[in-house]
Amino acid sequence: MRMKDQVAGFVLAGGASSRMGRNKALLAIAGEPLVVRAARLVESAVGDATVVGNPEMYKPLGLHAVSDDWPSAGPLGGIATALVASKAPWNLIVACDLPYLTKSWLNYVIARALASQGDAVVPMNALGIEPLCAIYHKRCEAAIRMELEQGVRKVTDALQGVLVEIIAQLEWKAFDSDGLLFKNMNSPEDYDEACAKLNGERAEFS
Which residues on adjacent β-strands are paired with residue 39? Predict the structure, then answer.
């Protein structure tokens, strides 16, 4: 069975970017918009990538996108949208603002999922789980949708009803000795840092 038949890839890019002051998905690192960078990375691991966000905004970038079914529900709504849209049993779902992710890490998460009996495989950081760089089975869809309908908006709360396999910090540290793997890009300062570390040229910020 081909990888793309077993695992679908999704990039969440529908956030408000309030701290950044503009749509961070479109900010460039080394001349490439962050959302494109994330989509290409996911494609390299699973063969395809669908963006959860405004299709009209991302189509000119050559990206396939689907509208968020729960636009006011934050990342949890994006995860639910991805699971509804997916035709694969497992679904790699990452936020677009994680510039330090690597293919080797994604490959490891996928391998863990394909061998797992759980409903989701999620890494654990010092401050808690990292649900926006994780892999979810299609069977999570009903449970997450039910939580959304009951008003739940926090991803960690919604996952209480599914069987989660945790990847401990000691395990993922092997892929990231600097501890940056799950560092997201929320502010202009984060953008500057990411550009400097990834040898990118900072795009004009306004």
Answer: none
